[in-house]
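ok so heres the complex, two chains, lmk if somethin looks off
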Amino acid sequence: MDKLVKLGQDMALLWENYYPRYLDGIKNTLILALVATAIGCVIGLVCGILNTIPYAKHDPLPKRFILKLVRVIVRIYVEVFRGTPMMLQAVFIFYGLPYFTDGGVQFSGYSGMWIASIIIVSINTGAYMAESVRGGIISIPVGQTEGAKAIGMNHVQTMTSIILPQALRNIMPQIGNNFIINVKDTSVMFIIGFTEFFASHRYITGVNNMYFPSAAIEMVGYLIMTLVASFILRKIEKHMDGPANFELAAGDTLTMSAGTYSHPSKGTPFDEHSKEHQERVSQELKYGRNRGDR
Amino acid sequence: MGEMILQVNHLSKSFGNNEVLRDIDFTVSKGDVTCVIGPSGSGKSTLLRCINLLETPSGGEIVYHGKNIMERGVNVTSYRAKVGMVFQSFNLFENMKVLKNCMVGQTKVLKRSPEQARDNAMKYLEKVGMAPYINAKPKQLSGGQKQRVAIARALAMDPEVLLFDEPTSALDPEMVGEVLSVMRDLAQEGMTMIVVTHEMAFARDVSSSVVFMSDGVICEAGPPAQIFQNPREQRTQEFLSRFRQQ
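and the predicted structre for the whole thing:
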């Protein structure tokens, strides 16, 4: 118990002295995670769509060749960036690009670090999202595509109006997942000197050696960020689902309640609902019914 | 007989080595209601899907207003916009409300203004009795209601021909009634329709010609009175025997 009290006191002390640094780290972490997840989603969306463009045997050869090539490239991209640690990718891009271009591409200064970090995290997220988007698209029943085609929509219209909105709804949990992973995993960007939340910890403990209390603050900080993120994501998903109820504009005239219907081949099911009947009723409502009319 | 709209010549379709359709010939004129009946697996639905090019036929030709639409370079999407289709499984767009379902094709494909599309959609939704449900999502509707919306969606494109692929097969007997009554109204108003159905009473009473298919070929075709009262082919007699006893 004493230890917990001591820990609380230490954390309070650290926070009091260094909260601008912690808050700055949180701000950078959140901005990086948000921007990179957004860009990553766009990359994933593009890759996922490219990967699902259908082609048939009778399509012209160039079209088939290009589509096949695109699929291979996307596949390589996904496998490479999903299969290697993000920390190493960071090093490769941050130091590798200047190395290969003889300094033509440089990530120098504060803005350079931001750009490099955003690029790396985005590309990484994109690799994961590409597969999620592909999964989201193929999870939509083929009937939706056929319904769209049957009213004359082309592939792009079918995708943008019908398939992607539904696929996006289905991959929202995946997007949330990736955002939360990014909030935590951006911590490896300290390797190229990016000052996110974890870098604040490294700086502060470097000054005063209070490793454990600072780590506790980090833990709580990350947990709060991810909890808030998942709460907001749930809200967004709920909003996308729309209201559970709908308003009826008037009564339905054709639905028959149970037991009032006889089979078409045996009875006269349409009498009650025929135009003539409806007209008669509306006339009666207008002019009143005379005795003995029916 | 009105103007000839659709002519199917020697149409065939095979999936791999499996020949599903062989040498199908028939014509549809304006105002015709053609019912395609026959046992399951006889290729009725495949025929309908070929006519709408949802399946690519393996051979033969489909001539629409004198033009073979199976040739290269034919604008498939604009052809499909003129040939509406109603599916057994409804295939309403799950992400859109009822009204939007009936508007999206008009605005995206026919490039109508939203107001125009809305008015047109409402006209047909009222016709099928679904106007009260414009704010509902498809998953909030019953099967019969979904199918009526699907019919309104197809009608809203102002098609020249409507294809129905077993529109009532997924419905219970009560819902069958509400959908058939809509289709019956359409037929009376002179809509050109090709209907694949197992509703023999509907085929007998509403259609102007009946096509009986069996094992991928047209076994017998003719006016409903002939098919239902004096079927010539033995296969037709067998298939209709249960129905004719009623």
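quick notes: Residues 257-270 of chain A have pLDDT under 50 and may be disordered. thats all i got rn
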